[in-house]
Design a protein that fits this description.
Length: 317
Amino acid sequence: MCSPAQPSVSRTGIFRGMGAIALHIIQEDTPMRDCCFVAAIAAAASLAACVAASPAMALGAVTYVSGKGVNSGVCATPATACRTFGYAIGQTSAAGEIKALDPANYGALTIDKSITITGVPGTSVRTANAKNAVAINAANAIVTLRGIDIDGGGVGTAGVVAYYARVLNIVGCVVRRFANEGVAISGGWDGMSVTISDTISSNNGKFGVDIVPGQKPVVASMDHVTTNDNGVAGLRAYPGAIVTIVDSFANNNASVGYLAVGGFPNATTMRLGRSAATGNQVGIQNLNFATVQSFGDNAVLGNATDISGVVASISHK
């Protein structure tokens, strides 16, 4: 009901709602205008309260990407899959998983939380300019990359670059054609635990796998890893790297198959078992008094120089 008739007045009305302020000059010629003015203020206040009370959109524990997807929404079901890994990671909760549904290039990305990214055959991350394909910068995170073809196209800077993470797992991936490293691991100042398995890192300008720790050691395990046709070495381990390599190959690298570089402040340790180094300038090289150990069952032959420096033979326990 409207109020009884009042004298006609001019009034300045300020409406606050939906995050905006509107200023209206209302010439009230009838009682009905006063009634509507009050009703409008009440409706605006009610709407603003509803908006303020709306919960934030929740992130998904599992999200999806597809070559036919669109970068909108929350990627929460196969039917609403997004288009790129870079968009999907923003819709995925920490310790969640992004699943690729079909073969496609899902684009470069930066990982800033614990995440698992799982591909299907043909899932790729390809770069068309000089940048890193997958950059990991997430202290204390656990990151797993599974079943992804990471391709620099001859212009990308590096394939997988791990600045910070607590745990990094690379499983069933191919990393190739980058100007510098296929896989580059530093571990920041906190160290890192790394597992690389069933993976190929090839045709990179410098190193297939390059482990250059920060202040604390990086402990790495590699099995069924092939590092071939890289411009410098298949694997380089710098001071602070503790690397165990089994059932792996370092072939046709321009300089060294397996390279261990000693120094300070932390020691370098490389252990090799059931692995092969062939077709390199040097098969296994120990520089600056690193610790390089062989279980005695490796095939190091067909290199210009098979072994350079001290490689100690140790027995299985």
